């Protein structure tokens, strides 16, 4: 039995589809019965912040897909690290044999926000005695449809990436890799996941303009100006500075390389950005007609 956490999320929904297609037994962890019913698969209600519910959800589980959100402003540990430790400890107690965890591209000790939090969670997992597989994806193509990308009041893309390419990966490919690993025998490895090409944000803006039918620009700011702008839009100053620092790292080429991991694990090439756009044309077209007055960066502070 596999337990899929984060099952209602972007990767999770694709993974539910992958596992359903394979006919393997799994159950989804959801935060309400209504979400489970909407997902339409075997499910159990629980919350990372309620350890007893996680212990109950892990009954009879052999393999665990571990994914969670949670970067917050302010001092103290990021929720990702705390929650994932809770789940890993519960998995050990429940007799789970192996965990496939979603991490980030090049996590590091002391790294800002998710980079440091995932490094902590990875360290805990590697020391747990369980078998593990750690997925380390670059930025998600889906950020451009989920609202996770920073945008201006006019709906333009906002960043500090300069001309650097980013090898964005499609979450459906992350899910496909996870499904292979959860049903396979390849353990105790890191899997650095990228799309097939590194693309810069002016190119992305041009492609989004073509699909949405309205002009979307890429607004590039020096990191300090980006931080000031985010602060002006309501983010705490330290948090805005951390975000800008991470963006600047990407602008220095931190995510401009590709790997062959998706092909190596799944046997097929990762989806291109063009393919992603074509498959999400309906969503993007809706976005193109929406009033572009979204609240910049709110997805980054969301602690759901
Ligand atoms: N976005 C990127 O570019 C990027 C790049 C690399 C790595 N990552 C990593 O990818 C992960 C996010 O993946 P995603 O985008 O697929 O997630 P997502 O779409 O944001 O979904 C998050 C999932 O976690 C569940 N969840 C949230 N809080 C929970 C709690 N307290 N207890 C139980 N479940 C909870 C949500 O359930 P509800 O439906 O109930 O809210 C949802 O199913 C993060 O760890 C992030 O650091 C992101």
UniProtKB/TrEMBL annotation:
Gene3D superfamilies: NAD(P)-binding Rossmann-like Domain, UDP-galactose 4-epimerase, domain 1
InterPro entries listed in its UniProt record: Ergot_Alk_Oxidoreductase (IPR051604), NAD(P)-bd_dom_sf (IPR036291), NmrA-like (IPR008030)
Domain of life from the UniProt record: Bacteria
NmrA-like domain mapped to chain residues: 2-256
Name of a matching Pfam family: NmrA
PANTHER family reported in the protein's UniProt record: PRESTALK A DIFFERENTIATION PROTEIN A (PTHR43162:SF1), PTHR43162
UniProt name for this protein: NmrA-like domain-containing protein
């Amino acid at each position: 039995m596999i337990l899929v956490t984060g099952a209602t999320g972007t990767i999770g929904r694709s993974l539910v589809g992958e596992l359903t297609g394979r006919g393997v037994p799994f159950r989804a962890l959801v935060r309400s019965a209504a979400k489970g019913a909407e997902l339409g698969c075997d499910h159990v209600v629980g919350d990372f912040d309620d350890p007893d519910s996680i212990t109950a959800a892990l009954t009879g589980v052999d393999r665990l897909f571990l994914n969670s959100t949670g970067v917050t402003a302010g001092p103290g540990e990021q929720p990702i690290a705390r929650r994932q430790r809770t789940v890993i400890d519960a998995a050990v107690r429940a007799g789970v044999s192996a965990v496939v965890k979603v991490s980030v591209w090049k996590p590091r000790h002391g790294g800002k926000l998710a980079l440091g939090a995932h490094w902590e969670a990875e360290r805990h997992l590697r020391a747990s005695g369980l078998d593990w597989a750690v997925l380390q994806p670059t930025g998600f193509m889906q950020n451009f449809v989920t609202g996770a990308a920073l945008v201006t009041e006019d709906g333009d893309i906002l960043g500090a990436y300069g001309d650097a390419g980013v090898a964005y990966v499609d979450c459906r490919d992350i899910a496909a890799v996870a499904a292979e690993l959860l049903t396979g025998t390849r353990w105790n490895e890191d899997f650095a996941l990228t799309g097939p090409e590194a693309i810069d944000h002016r190119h992305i803006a041009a492609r989004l303009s073509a699909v949405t039918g309205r002009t979307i620009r890429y607004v590039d700011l020096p990191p300090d100006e980006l931080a000031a702008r985010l602060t002006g839009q309501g983010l705490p100053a330290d948090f805005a500075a951390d975000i800008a620092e991470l963006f600047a790292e990407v602008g220095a080429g931190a995510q401009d390389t590709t790997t062959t991991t998706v092909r190596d694990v799944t046997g097929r090439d990762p989806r291109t950005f063009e393919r992603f756009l074509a498959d999400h044309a309906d969503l993007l077209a809706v976005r193109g007609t929406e009033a572009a007055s979204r609240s910049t960066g709110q997805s980054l502070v969301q602690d759901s």
